[in-house]
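Input.
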Amino acid sequence: MIPLTIFFFKNCNTAKKGTSFIKTITSYLSYQQLHIEELVTLCQQQNQKAQFEVYNRYCKAMYNVAFRIVKDEHFAEDVMQESFLKAFTKIDSYKKEVAFGAWLKRIVINYSIDFCKKNNKLKSDDFEKNLYKIEDKEAEFTEVINFDEIKVKEVLNAIQSLKSSYSTVLTLFYIEGYDQEEISEILKISYANCRTTLSRAKESLRNKLCEI
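Output.
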């Protein structure tokens, strides 16, 4: 993970050479006491100390979100960094209709998926080929996996081992908490397409977990 000071001084225009490191860090301490909505308001005023504090609070969680999708530590760092820069650039569009963390996570997820598509890690064909294969065995597809008997790490590893389209929809559904309508919007696929892909992904996950 890139140190916070490197991120800040690398990406903030007002960082001056020769500025006392101790004085700079000390000036941030008061920002740690602010509520996130207060920090967002300051960020909308281009306050870079507030941006630093927001980054400090969310970088680890957003890195994990990116990593679960791009599946590479180096690329996850890049995606996370670029997502923060994009978020600060468009922060005026944040209307407080959802929690700031949820708004930021959506940016990270969208950027992660775009990254995978650009690097051929996630192809639209992976979803489209299932479009006309919708089955009506909903009860079978929605069978609840008994996570109590399986370690969380084993479940996460099983999800990551699946094909990209399956691991992506399962990550968005089980880990990030999005419903099928939201997932279809994020992935830019039809609801029916999303439903079928998710159903088949669940089935693949169950088969994988049965091997443990």
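The chain has twelve helices and no strands.
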